[in-house]
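Allow me, if you will, to draw on your knowledge of protein folds for a short while. I have a record of one protein: its chain in single-letter code and its fold written as discrete structure tokens. The full record is reproduced below for your convenience:
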Amino acid sequence: MAGKIITISSGKGGVGKTTATANLGLSLAILGKRVTCIDADIGLRNLDVMLGLENRIVYDIINFIEGRCRFRQALVRDKRFPELYMMAAAQTRDKNSITVEDMTKVAREAAEISDFVLIDSPAGIEHGFRYAVAPADLVLIVTNPEVTAVRDADRVIGLLEAEELAPAQLILNRYKPELVRRNEMLDPDTVIDLLAIDLIGIVPEDDKVFGAGNQGRPVALDEHSRAGKAFRNIGRRLTGEDVPFEALRKQTFIQRLFGSR
């Protein structure tokens, strides 16, 4: 049975899409799942750095598509988790080097050897977005609780619905309850109401995320990181487990309900 293909998208750049891809890949691997992460951001690859695999790349996705290597040769295995693989984006080409048919072929071949295939989509809603979401069974929309990010996420959801593509679920990233209390950030319930899709996870702001990504050791590996725990919980939900949301969301709702400051 083929694995589930999940595209991680955002609309807006800089909201944590690649960070989410790396951490969810590791979270699923921690659970013993076979995972293949595909960097679809041709010309701007970063997923390899996030996973600490940048020095082990020999072939990339374009090499495979153009027949210069076999599928397995284009995969880099994570030494920490033998069932976690990554396929790197090409740095010297552009997004027009890949077609919808190319990405569909790559994703489906990955699904034959994986429980989950995670595609790190380019930002925006142009050609790169369209080939990244084409093979998806599910699209995870990553947004920050800010008006501009939510507006761009809404455009992505609108495109998915208009073209009858995969269903979408929401990851709310870099959430700060104290800013919500000061009315400087949108609260989760407002974002959910605006986007009208199911929430799969809220990832709190965590200073450890930036350093962990630079070191190639995502926070999903850190037992003491709140963001790491949030990503691991999203991974569990993706496997079908019923995982309650952390109190950080409930607290905001209760405070609003009772009008407390």
Notes: The chain has one domain: 4-257.
